[in-house]
Specification:
- The protein has two domains: about 30 residues, no CATH class; about 70 residues, no CATH class.
- Helix content is about 45%, strand content about 10%.
- The chain has five helices and two strands.
- It has a two-stranded antiparallel sheet.
- It is globular and about 50 Å long.
- The termini are far apart.
- The model has no long low-confidence stretch (mean pLDDT about 80).
């Protein structure tokens, strides 16, 4: 069964639509190890472990890009594990960065 989505005033194949969106993403997102994993793993409910998501991120070449991307976004609205770090860990990193004296 061919799934179609509406784009403007015509229908396109859903796979074509995904490909268009994917092309707009940064290259590091297209190479991320989390692609293909259940997204729920990266947004665990309260009390659930973040370790499985962190394990997916660990040691991956795009992890620093993902972490920087998460830091650039609004810390109060971005939830889940990004770049191998939870929201709490990213907030801690921001606070530590602000406490460091400027390099001369």
């Amino acid at each position: 069964m061919l799934r179609c989505v509406e784009e403007g005033n015509h229908l396109i194949d859903a796979a074509e639509s995904v490909a268009k969106v994917d092309a707009l993403r940064p290259a590091w997102m297209r190479r991320a190890a989390c692609r293909g994993h259940d997204t729920a793993m990266f947004f665990p409910s309260r009390g659930k472990s973040c370790d499985p998501a962190k394990a997916v991120c660990a040691g991956r070449p795009v992890r620093p890009d993902c972490f920087d991307h998460a830091l650039a976004l609004d810390a109060t609205t971005l939830k889940g594990v990004w770049g191998g770090a939870t929201g709490r860990e990213r907030r801690r990193h921001r606070r530590e960065q602000h406490r460091r004296p400027e390099a001369a």
